[in-house]
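Deliverable D5.2: sample structural annotation.
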Amino acid sequence: MNDVLKKIKTIAFKVVKWFFIVSIASVILFRFVPVFFTPLMAIRFVEQVFDSERDIQFKKDWEPISNISPLLVKAVMTSEDQRFNEHFGLDMEAIQKAAEYNEKHQNKKRGASTISQQTAKNVFLFPSRTWLRKGFEVYFTFLIEIFWSKQRIMEVYLNVIELGNGIYGAEAASQYYFNKPASKLSMQQAASLAAILPLPLKWSPVKPNARVMKRTEWIKRYMPYVEGLEEKNNK
């Protein structure tokens, strides 16, 4: 019995050790290498194959953040994470506010995931709502905050986010919806893309429903008050 326990402990130790080695190495690798494919993209492709009502398509073009409009950066920060420049992966103030809101509104939950958390989840994990996945998300979030700059986190985020059926990243979405590169997006177009982030498979920036239009106007209104990456770096 003691031999069996020793073997289990040895195997568990090796698994944990290699998990840390591989996870840290992969985070360091993606600090320099473009992310061309993610677990979510694989899942969505399988869903396309088995869903006769969805077209099978995959549109993704990696662009450095210098080729993406600062207006889009500010739009997604306004929509998803206004304290992106200030927190270290987790926004404790937003988490507290979300918890208080959810206690009062049981049927309508509000999340508090930061752009860093969303990036960690999209690049390294499969989507699920389990506490185990959430724990891994926090772990990878801290890793990318340690090894990546804020600019790199935003760059990866803007290149992997889902913005439609088989459409990933700012460049592919800009070309698909507006027939222009992401560097040329107007404030209206940037805000409309940011507005569909909560439900990109149901909402469209070019055929907006009432909720998307309302979110777009709200984002445009508050964008001037959100500090962008360039403004932060120039201080």
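Annotation notes: Residues 1-30 form one domain. The longest strand covers residues 59-60.
The annotation will be released with the project's public dataset once the embargo ends.
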